[in-house]
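=== RUN LOG ===
request id: a7f3
mode: sequence -> structure
chains: 1
length: 421
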Amino acid sequence: MTCSIRNRFILGISILLLPLLLLSSVGYFYFKQSLTTLHTSISQVLENSLPINQLQDDIQKIHLQMANRSLSKIETPKIIHQTKSIDQHLLTFLHRYPEGSELYEMYQSALHEWQLTQHAIYTQLQRSTVKHNNASISDNYLSPLLNTLYLLNNIENQQQQRISQYYQSSETLHITVQMLIAAIFIFGLITTISISIVLTRSILIPLKQFDQWAIHFAQTKQPETIHIKSYIEFERLANTFNTMANALQEKQEKLEKLSLRDELTDLYNRRSLQLRLEEEFIRFERYQQRFALMIVDIDHFTSINDSYGRVAGDQALVEIAQLLKAQIRPIDYIARYDSEKFALLLPEINLQGAQALAERIRVHISDTTFHLDNHQIGITVSIGYALLGENVESINALLTQADKALILAKEKGRNKTCYIE
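=== RESULT ===
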């Protein structure tokens, strides 16, 4: 999409302001959300840590009561109620954490140890009347009880570490926000510089392209298309230059075609044939690849013009040119050599191949009925050909030899093919 220079500058300023506003908004909401999350986490840890201290005190009290060898019937239900309360609190804490997490596993272990403690305490309370078993029963509940206290102490330490980590996160967040603000400032500065560079280049580069186009045209006289997709002003100017370049190119192609092609038959002309002969001769000198030159002359062509008119004569030239083109290979080269003569340049061919082609062309034209300006007439041709080789070692010699062969074909009565060694 293209736009004017004025609109491009307005767009550049908008692009400059938009990232700054966006980053500022993102920084604000990120800071606010992070603080909210941090506050919630710290509150949760503090909320969980206070009941743990209370549980530890309750377990200590139960231990002291159980250590008393003479429990009254009033104290026994109280102890049972306390153990069940501790069990419920541990279950509540356990379900506050996702399954598989570290604290979940620690609470689960503490709950297991406490359930073992409960079982031992219930057993002791049921057998409290048997005095000689008190010591062994006490040992049964004391071990899991101490394990429970140990695990709760580890949980408390773990939560204290989490609180410390949260405070560290708070400090990190503070630093992050400062860095974010600095990044916004640096980004804004870089964006400003970048947009300035882009806007400057988007003007200077098209101007440089126009300058290079003018230099190229001045040096080579060959027009070249300019491709610019930036501003409307530059694009319009480039389109104007391209229109001029296309017009010049078309005229040059027409002139080149006129210089190398025959206007009537659209075959190559004698000048073009000379250039191609020189190229083939260079290949012959380098690779020793022989080639033949064949000259085809329309018999009694002057009589055709005199009897049927020049329009018919021109039609004859065009139709014979098409017949010749249909008989040769893609690598062969055909040109209008003179008014009623055609020349065929045949690369990579031997004498037998040249003889066969010449005879095939002669017979084909002789057997063809030509419809020329409402007249049906027969036309024959005489063909002389020569090969570049031992006795013919230059282009001029090749042309001379082919002309001599053509003259010989005419002298033999026309509608003949001849070759002179």
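=== NOTES ===
The first strand starts at residue 291 and ends at 298.
The mean pLDDT is 79.
=== END ===
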